[in-house]
Design goal:
With 283 residues, this protein is α/β, with parallel strands linked by helices. 40% of the residues lie in helices and 16% in strands. The protein has a 5-stranded mixed beta sheet with strand order 1-3-4-5-2, sandwiched between helices. Strands 6-8-9-10-7 form a 5-stranded mixed beta sheet. α7 (148-157) crosses α12.
Length: 283
C-alpha cells in the first residue's frame, strides 16, 4: 500500500492531533504587511467582501468567542477549534482562530443547553481567559465564485489540470481501487469506506466534499452519471444504499467515503493561502 504524503499530514501530527488544522506563524503574517494592526472585524469583512451577494442572513458564520474590535496577534485556520488547537494558539500567541465547522457541538453553536456542562464550560472559559476570537467561515468560503473548500481539496489531490470549477472532473482512466489508493495517499487517510467493484473503470468523478445530504448527492448522481462519487459522508441508508442497489442491478458505480473532516481539510489550507495573499490588502 502507498504511504501517505509526509508533508502536510506529518506537519499536523507534529503540532496537533491528526487532521485538526493548519497554523500560520503570526509574526510572518504581520511583518510582511504594510499595516501595523488588524482587528478581527477587518479580516472578517475583507473575506466577506470577496463573496458574491454577501453578507448573508441568516448565516452560521458568526463569532463564537471574542469581539470584532480586538486586534489580531496571529491567525490559525482549522476545521475545528479543538482544545489542542486552542492551546497551540495560546502557545503561539495567536488570538484569532478561523474554523470551518461548529465550535460548540451543533450547527448553530447554540449554547443554552450546554450551560451546566463541564466540557462546554472548560472550552468557553479557555477561550475567554486568553482573549481568543473564533469565527466560523463555512457559508462564505463555500459561496466564493470558486468554492474555497472544493478548490483546496482539488489542490491536495493534485487534480488541478482536470478542474473546471465545478464538482465534475474527467480524469485519465484508472480503476476504483487505484483511485482509492490515490485518495488515501494524497489526503493522508489510513482508511476509508467504499462501495463498488475495485476493478471497475473510473474516469468521470463527482467530487462532493463534506456532507451536502444524501438526497442532493443522489440527485447529482442521477444528473451527472459519474463513474465514481467521492464524498465526505452520507447516512448509510441514503447514498451508500443507493450505490449498492445500483451495483446489484448491474451498473458500475463507485462510491468513496473519505470522512467529513478529511474531505474538507483542504479548505483550511485554502484559507491559510488566502490570508497570506489578501490580508495585507486590509486598510
Amino acid at each position: 500500500m502507498n504511504k501517505p504524503n509526509p508533508n502536510r499530514r506529518n506537519f499536523l501530527k507534529t503540532f496537533v492531533l491528526l487532521g485538526t488544522g493548519i497554523f500560520l506563524n503570526p509574526l510572518d503574517l504581520f511583518s510582511a504587511s504594510g499595516k501595523a494592526t488588524y482587528t478581527v472585524g477587518d479580516i472578517m469583512d475583507l473575506f466577506i467582501s470577496k463573496v458574491p451577494n454577501a453578507p448573508f442572513s441568516p448565516t452560521v458564520d458568526t463569532l463564537k468567542s471574542g469581539t470584532r474590535e480586538q486586534e489580531v496577534t496571529g491567525i490559525i485556520t482549522t476545521m475545528f477549534a479543538t482544545l489542542t488547537v486552542i492551546r497551540k494558539a495560546i502557545e503561539l500567541k495567536a488570538n484569532f482562530i478561523i474554523v470551518h465547522e461548529p465550535t460548540f457541538y451543533n450547527h448553530l453553536d447554540e449554547t443554552d443547553w450546554l450551560k451546566n456542562d463541564p466540557v462546554y464550560q472548560f472550552k468557553a472559559d479557555l477561550l475567554n481567559q486568553h482573549g481568543i476570537a473564533v469565527w466560523r467561515n463555512h457559508d462564505y468560503v463555500h459561496a466564493l465564485q470558486i468554492d474555497g473548500v472544493q478548490k483546496g481539496v482539488v489542490d491536495e489531490l493534485g487534480w488541478n489540470a482536470y478542474y473546471k470549477q465545478n464538482a465534475v472532473l474527467n480524469l485519465p482512466e484508472t480503476s476504483l481501487g487505484e483511485l482509492i489508493d490515490h485518495v488515501k495517499t494524497k489526503l493522508g487517510v489510513p482508511a476509508l469506506r467504499y462501495v463498488g467493484d475495485l476493478n471497475q473503470s473510473a474516469s468521470k468523478i463527482l467530487l462532493l466534499p463534506g456532507a451536502i445530504g444524501g438526497r442532493r448527492q443522489i440527485e447529482l448522481l442521477m444528473q451527472e452519471k459519474p463513474d465514481v462519487l467521492i464524498c465526505g459522508e452520507s447516512p448509510e441508508w441514503e447514498t451508500p444504499e443507493y450505490v449498492r442497489n445500483a451495483n446489484e442491478m448491474g451498473e458500475k458505480l463507485g462510491l468513496i467515503v473519505i470522512g467529513h473532516s478529511a474531505s474538507e481539510e483542504g479548505g483550511s489550507e485554502f484559507m491559510k493561502s488566502w490570508i497570506e495573499v489578501n490580508v495585507r490588502e486590509c486598510r
